[in-house]
Recover the amino acids of this structure.
């Protein structure tokens, strides 16, 4: 389910590869010209006209390739974000048979785990089946020492 934008070859990547290739060719030509000259003053034109621009093209190509890969990564992040926030199925029922927006826990009994920081409904998956779960002490809730569980949201029922 990839977008066509990701399948196309980015011109920045082509430019990067072309700059790398041209830089490599210029460096080879410069090296070949320098290797045939005995005196330094005769090697200087090869350095100025081939080797230095070749090295600059290699650096520019590497920068373009890195930039092109960043743009591909950004496009992939945008695609994943789009998939994340797109609307779900048209039917409200999920494949499991229960409503998609049904609450996770609906029990009126409130529990807490000693030493914990949250209070839960009794059928909350975070405390369901835990032997150490005890009924909520109303003094701890009133004092603000316990927060409502973000999973089962017991505050909605008690307010």
């Amino acid at each position: 389910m990839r977008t066509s934008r990701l399948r196309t070859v980015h011109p920045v990547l082509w430019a990067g590869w072309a700059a790398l290739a041209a830089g490599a060719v210029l460096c080879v030509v410069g090296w070949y010209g320098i290797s045939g000259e005995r005196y330094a003053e005769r090697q200087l034109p090869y350095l100025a006209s081939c080797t230095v621009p070749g090295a600059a093209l290699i650096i520019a190509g590497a920068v373009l390739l890195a930039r092109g890969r960043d743009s591909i990564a950004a496009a992939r992040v945008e695609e994943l974000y789009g998939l994340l926030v797109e609307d779900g199925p048209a039917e409200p029922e999920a494949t499991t048979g229960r409503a998609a927006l049904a609450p996770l826990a609906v029990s009126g009994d409130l529990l807490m785990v000693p030493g914990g920081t949250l209070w839960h409904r009794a059928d909350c998956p975070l405390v369901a089946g835990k032997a150490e779960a005890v009924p909520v002490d109303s003094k701890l809730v009133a004092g603000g020492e316990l927060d409502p569980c973000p999973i089962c949201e017991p505050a909605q029922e008690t307010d």
User: Anything to note?
Assistant: The longest helix spans residues 40-85. DSSP finds five helices and four strands in the chain. The chain has a mean pLDDT of 76.
